[in-house]
Design brief:
- The strands form 3 sheets. This protein has a 4-stranded mixed beta sheet, with helices on both faces. Strands 3-4 form a two-stranded antiparallel sheet.
- By secondary structure, it is α+β, with helices and mostly antiparallel strands.
- The protein is built from 5 helices and 8 strands.
């Protein structure tokens, strides 16, 4: 009886996912994150959290529904860290728009590229630059990540989110 209830709940949860939710490659996200962590000298590897992935999916679905795929951070109140990524449609001269093929590696590498603007010795970003996405990814005490994406079909824009636990980017603390 208990197993049947679990199976029904799982089927309902999967049915609630939008069509694009299945396109997120969890293993690719973890591998890409762990490459950046290794490069920073962080030996603790991230693992994938289905719970965080569901939370991230709920958030990008909200952005799709209420914010037309524009980025806006959720309000985690310290429960998790969050990185967002947005991609436009591929636009053709005849006015056609089509979905860009974005990989988890592209998403993670865009955040990782902020490493160039992070000053570890002084634990700050280069003035006028961002580096908090990078530092969240490599935050030593962070152990899990869950990621998701949504597509606004009318514009072919997409928004991605990864959520992290425990959250990083604590003021006054270095990531490792």
């Amino acid at each position: 009886m208990k197993l049947a209830t679990i199976a029904i709940l799982l089927a309902a949860a999967l049915a609630a996912f939008p069509a694009y939710a299945g396109e997120v490659d969890a293993a690719a996200f973890v591998t890409a994150h762990n490459k950046w962590r290794t490069a920073a000298g962080v030996t603790e590897k991230l693992s994938y959290s289905p719970t965080l992935a569901l939370s991230a999916q709920a958030w990008v679905d909200t952005l799709k529904r209420t914010n037309h795929c524009r980025m806006r951070h959720s309000k985690p109140n310290g429960q998790y860290g969050e990185n967002l990524y947005w991609a436009s449609a591929r636009a053709w001269s005849d006015g056609r728009k089509e979905l860009q093929k974005i990989s988890p590696e592209q998403v993670v590498n865009s955040w990782g590229s902020e490493k160039a603007d992070y000053d570890y010795a002084n634990n700050r970003c280069t003035p006028g630059k961002m580096c908090g996405h990078y530092t969240q990814m490599i935050w030593r005490i962070t152990t899990t990540v869950g990621c998701a994406m949504a597509v606004c079909e009318d514009t072919q824009e997409q928004v991605w989110a990864c959520q992290y636990q425990p959250a990083g980017n604590r003021i006054g603390r270095k990531p490792y």
